[in-house]
Amino acid sequence: MKKIFKKSILLGAAIALLLVGGALAACDKKTDGHEHIYGSWQVVTEAGCEVNGLKKHVCTVCGAEDTEEIPAAGHDWGVSKVTKEATCTQEGERVKTCKVCGATQPEKTPPIEHDWVTKKVIVPATCEEPGKAEQVCSVCGTSNEDATLPALEHDWEVPEIVKPATCEEPGMERKVCKRDGCHKEETNVIPALEHRWMNTRVIEPATCEENGVQEQTCQRPNCPKKTQQVPISALDHSWQSYYTVDTPPTFESEGVKSYHCNRCEKTQGAVSVPKLEANTPIPYEFRTLRNNGQLLIAPSMTLIVTDAETGAEVARSTPTDLNGGVFTKELLPKTYIVTAENLPAGYTCGKSFTVTPFDPYCNVYLTASVREGRPTGRYAVGDVMYDFTAPAANSTAGELNLKSVLQTKKMVLLNFWFVGCVYCEEEFPALERAYTKYQSTVEVIAVNQNDAMSAIESYRLQMGLSFPLVQNSAVGLITPFGVTGYPTSVVIDGEGVVSEILVGPQTQAKFEQLFAKYTEASGRATETAAPAAIAAPAALPPEKRVNAR
User: Fold this and answer.
1) Cis, peptide link before residue 487, omega less than 30° from 0
2) In the 8-state DSSP scheme, what is residue 323?
3) How far apart are alpha carbons 468 and 446 in whole angstroms?
4) In angstroms, rounded to a whole number, what is the distance separating the alpha carbons of residues 64 and 66?
5) Is pLDDT at 527 greater than 90 in this prediction?
6) How confident is the model at residue 533 (pLDDT cuts 50, 70, 90)?
7) Model confidence over 112-170: pLDDT tens digits?
8) 443, 411 in Cβ contact below 8 A?
9) CB of 71 within 8 A of CB of 47?
10) Residue 206 DSSP symbol
């Protein structure tokens, strides 16, 4: 038994030696390409401001150590302390101290400049020649007997215009120095002025695909070149958002419908319309349109459809139907009369409109006009503006009336601002330049928030504005439009409808784009009609006439 136990001990020791020997052999194989298995780094000596530190890590198998330097951190200098003030003649000194180790480092500061005071003028300076003087420093008393006095600048009188500048020719001005003993004269060229062109008449209107020609007249007096002709860019097509029937369907053949351009006779996207069947309903479409052809979303309005032959009501729209400006209803192929009720405030339309199965698309045109009385709620795009009258700075009539203005202008831009508004001041020059070009067809009314009329007039003169400015207290427009950001621009079209609201400063290009858009927009007459003379049943084959009723 003892022998067995002894053998077990010897066997265990041999195995342990083999394991340790194997591990040592593994670490010793570093020269053969193997590496130690190191633990994490441990700091042996902390690094100082100028002295490197030391760190090590130990092999977890054999205990071998590997060391590496920690770079010195460098001094963390605090605020320098003045130990000696600099003077006019001597350098100063200051010391900075490291906040970590307390080491110090002295620094020199340069002498301060002399505070020279002229004691005696030896040679006076002139407008063009330097002078000489005796000077003394008020701080240290140092004397400088040969100090240079800088040459004076000319003190020019108000220039005399010898030859006024024109739009194309430079002018000439003469000025004289009024300083005693100088009186030098100098002539300068006045750069030629730029033309101040204003559109006066269209020689050849632009079309969707062809440029037009515009005549412009310079507004400056005594301009040698009074007029010029400039191109008007092609308008591009303005495609309708709804189909128009080009070839009406019949009970014998299909028809054709397409999208039409609002400006010209071009069409696109043509598709076929199924032929009519007497007892099969077809979709009739009723569109509520502004007088200029744009869709008007008017949920408050009701469209009533009646049979043209019997006068019986066959359909009535709901607010949901007109939420997109279009009321669609499947009806038997007949001729129907459409009337409108509950129109939005400020809108009117024809008494009746006729729609046939051969052209089942009915445009219900609504005409707007400026309405009386201020609104109780907020204004939004599509609402009709109310009439107002207000005294205005720079108005030939002394006051402005919106309804009167719209009789001669195709658009009014309300611009909300106040004195001291930085963005308004940036925007006004761009608005003025655009207004100068379109003032024959566009009016701009700048509505001031709450400044006095005297301040408004002074500001207008300072900025060189030619459009009228009014005070909000006279018109009360800020609240109905909910204006909180300045500047804010509101577009009122020729019918008095709020068409666009722009918050923030706009560029000259943006204003000109707006003015051109509403100047070129053409109204379209309200389409009213009596019941059609030919109703659908009259076109039916004889064998289908009974069923059609």
Assistant:
1) yes
2) G
3) 6
4) 7
5) no
6) very low
7) 998 989 988 999 999 999 999 999 998 888 888 889 999 989 999 999 999 998 888 89
8) yes
9) yes
10) -
d(CA 271, CA 401): 49
The pLDDT confidence band at residue 546, using thresholds 50, 70 and 90, is very low
Mean pLDDT over 349-376 rounds to: 86
208-222, 264-278, 328-342: least confidently modelled range: 208-222
* Helices 508-520 and 422-438: angle between axes, nearest 10 degrees: 40
**CA–CA separation, 342 and 329 (whole Å):** 20
Q: Which two tokens stand for residue 291?
A: 């007088």
Residue 424 has pLDDT above 90, yes or no: yes
CA distance 501 to 362: 30
- Closest listed residue to residue 446, CA positions, set 480, 422, 475: 475
Nearest one of 498, 444, 452 to 474, comparing CA atoms: 452
Looking at residue 384, the DSSP 8-state letter turns out to be B
Classify the C-alpha dihedral 501-507-508-509 as positive or negative: negative
Which helix (H) or strand (E) is 26 found in, with range?
helix 2-28
The residue with tokens 């009016």 is 443
Query: What are the chain's domains?
Result: 94-153 (no CATH), 160-190 (no CATH), 197-232 (no CATH), 239-368+527-536 (2.60.40.10), 389-506 (3.40.30.10)
CA 359 to chain centre: 43
Distance CA 531, CA 355 (A): 9
Task: Please provide the average confidence, as pLDDT, over all residues in the chain.
Answer: 83
Which residues partner with 131 through β-bridges?
A: 149
Residue 396 contacts by C-beta under 8 Å, 6 or more apart in sequence? none
User: Cα torsion at 215, 218, 223, 228 (round to 10°)?
Assistant: -20
Tokens 């309300």: give the residue.
414
CA distance 307 to 312: 5
Closest to 56 (Cα-Cα) out of 64, 47, 65: 65
Mean pLDDT of 228-244: 87
Angle at 224 between CA 220 and CA 228, to 5 degrees: 80
Residue type, 35: E
Residue 158 burial (C-beta neighbours within 10 Å; 0-12, 13-18, 19+):
exposed
Strand 336-341 versus strand 302-307 pairing type: antiparallel
